Amino acid sequence: LDTRHDGQPSERWSWILWFRDSDTCDDNSNEWYHQCAVEGNPTCMYLHATREPKTESVVRWNRKASDAGHAQASVKLAYAYLKLLPSHLNFDRDAAEALFQSAIDSSNEPDGHYGLASLYLENMKQNIQLQPGTSPTGTQTMFKIIHHLEEAAKSGHVFAMFNLGMCYTYGYHRKDGLRDYELAVKWFEASGLPEGMAAKALYLEQIRNITGAEEYRQKALILGFGTFWRKTARERTGSGGSSGANLNLPWPPLPTGEMPPEW
């Protein structure tokens, strides 16, 4: 809710409890999932990986979990192959693509869809750089990218929602490049991200809705937009599923040279 019952701005309060399984407050969290991980529980393998101190062990347990069908482990392993998460693995785009697809096949994992959309956009961007003047709008590849973003958004993936806003803002969804700003701002607002609120504020400013623009600008600021910590926090937490996910997808340039800015 934006306001309380008395009309004042609403506030959010969080109550965080920390538990330690020791009378002397020793940290034994590295033991919590070890036994069930050894016994072959995929979720335990995935959680145990988060407690391992060495990247080799983190990768090993995520691989075990991925092989056992854990979708989020597959996503993390994919980002490790892309060098977006710390790992000793060699860069391997094909392995990452297969792991994102595996995450989709096993449980329709939204971060799997988002990861594939990112890879396909990167491919398209590289191809356009090799063939200047080529338009990325309304192509079969772009429709496939939009499909993956929509599938991720259906499962609440806020980064995908924000990028669908970018898609409609720049007309990537149509062969003629016609833009749909009204649909774009709906996706920006649906994301709930400070960047989404700021993007809607820019749109409202463009159509001379100064009051609305200021309202959404304030929402963005309250959520941390423009602060020194926001980008770092976003990169560390990712979409909530994996910290390797990047809000700024590699959208290719339009024939005019335009493309979405980095946020």
Folded structure, characterized:
With 263 residues, the chain is mainly α. It is 55% helix and 0% strand. It is built from 12 helices and no strands. The chain has helices at 34-38, 42-49, 55-67, 71-81, 93-107, 110-130, 140-154, 158-169, 181-191, 194-206, 210-222, 230-237. Helix 10 runs antiparallel to helix 11 (210-222). The model has no long low-confidence stretch (mean pLDDT 91).
Topology:
Layout: H1 34-38, H2 42-49, H3 55-67, H4 71-81, H5 93-107, H6 110-130, H7 140-154, H8 158-169, H9 181-191, H10 194-206, H11 210-222, H12 230-237
Name the descriptors.
12 helices; mainly alpha
**Spans where pLDDT lies below 50 across 5 or more residues:** none
| Mean pLDDT value | 91
> What is the approximate shape?
flat
For the secondary structure, the number of strands is: 0
Helical fraction equals: 55-70%
Computed over alpha carbons, the radius of gyration is: 21 Å
Percentage of residues in strands: under 5%
Question: How do the SSEs run, as a string of H and E?
Answer: HHHHHHHHHHHH
Q: What oligomeric state best describes the polypeptide chains here?
A: single chain
Structure class: mainly alpha
- The total count of helices amounts to 12
Measure the end-to-end span.
Answer: 26 Å
What composes the largest sheet?
none
